[in-house]
Structure prediction request, 553 residues.
Amino acid sequence: MLGCVDTGAGRVPARLVVQGVDASESFAGRDGWTIELDRAELAFGGLTLCPGVQAGDLCEEARAEVLEPVRIDGLDPAPREVAEISALATTVRSAMWNYGVRWPLTSTEPVVDEAAADGSVVLEGVARRPSDAGERVLPFRASLILEPAGPGVVVVRASRLFDHDIEAGDTLRVSIDPRAWVSTVQFDALFDATTPGETAVFAEDSQATRAVVTALTTRAQPRLSWND
Amino acid sequence: MKMLSLNPARSFVVIALACVFACTSPSGSIDVFIEAEDTIVSGIEAGAGPDDMQDGWTATFDRYAAVLGDVELQLATDDTVQAGLPGQVAIDLAGIAPSGASLGRIGDTPAGRYEIRYRQGSAREATNVDLDAVDFEEMVAGDCTYLVSGAITRADGRSCPSTLADVPAGRTPDADGCFPAPAVSFRWCASAPAAYGPCQSENGPSGVALTQGGALASLTIHGDHLFFNGFPEGEEGGVVRLAQWLADADLDLNGEVTRAELERIALEDVVEFDGRYELGGAPPLPNLPGETTPEPMDDLWSYVRTQLRTQGHLNGEGECPVDTE
Prediction:
């Protein structure tokens, strides 16, 4: 599960904890829609922690790696320990990760790990909006694969995350908030494209899919923090 | 070669172990230049080559004013040995000579390999080198790092604006919801402050090697990142250049894309940002005043400013990580 470059620093045990949010209440979406989420799961990892402020090519030596992706229930607000990780007792400042799909340099196509067997992201819920003709109700479902753009590429390279000296017993918490993934979906367009009474499915090239992917790669990335 | 009127006394060398170096070590001078990537001067041609614009558009720049400077060098083997060129200049990279413009010389510096850092700040803290007074005043008033103007052209170009479009009366879209747009211009005064470094060289160890014969260091500003497919990995290996997103941002179909239009377009509404784009490697924008978290990159204007903050390089293609301090 773990693999670190040995730089001479001692290995120490640390814990990987994941956490979602309480989204039992409906929340505001775009253009007057309110959203309820019944299911929101994310495949997270592999994860690499880097010593430099900037990850990616400039991450010359991994300080800790979680090679096997984990599945996070985004609607479970309770912290859940998912792995006992062994890291190097040294400083980490940035990280890079995939969403359950990796693309090794030696492979001609991406590899979907078990955690992403149902999709990197799986969403189910209902969106509602008042209208002159009565309330619009739109059940929706999404099962999206977020794959690297090419061999050796990692989907998210997050810079300036923290400046943390890893010590034995530390906890790295990965928190996600799936409400932010769907809050910018244009449900009006999705409603118009869906047969009444049926469940809307986020199509590959749709605005709805772009909204989720953009959120997870930019403004609503999982939040990584130590010992909080 | 353009020579900047920079006072040599502005350069500095701090040598903690002065006698040791002065008495026993060779020394030399580092000449620092400002250099524009060829894309700024010559534009980006449409084509299928690896450096071409892949979606049929050609881009040209008639102005590419940038603020940069505050060069800092640090001996790689002894961080008490430092040298530099303080101060920032505002210069039009679109009119720069192929050999670059001299920023200044750092003289009598102990030989060795140096890490190099530099900054891009605001015109408010810069000396105007060759900008029109009106342009420079605009940059000062707007607290801008860049003033970039140019156009994208394509004989059969189309603008396919989003549902936000303010379509003028009498304009009828084609079957795809698009309008003819053979040329789309832009002129953006943008704040994009950045601290670069330690910079890598294009091939080999990072920084600059100074010998008794001297050394050259060129602060190279790239011009094509605006057209990258997001933020692909360093060394530009996975880069594809595309411009249709810019044509689509002309919401009022007047042939010019403004800051106001870019600010109205959320990233998730950019149809062009599909699987070809890598958005997950964007360096964070600086914190907003009074905030403890970075300004979000959530619309096309913040996207453009984020791209501008990735353009600082060393000696051509040497990568410079941004905001590492």
In short: Confidence is low (pLDDT under 50) at residues 1-7 of chain A. Chain A touches chain B through 28 residues (CB under 8 Å). Helices of chain A lie at 179-182, 187-192, 207-217.
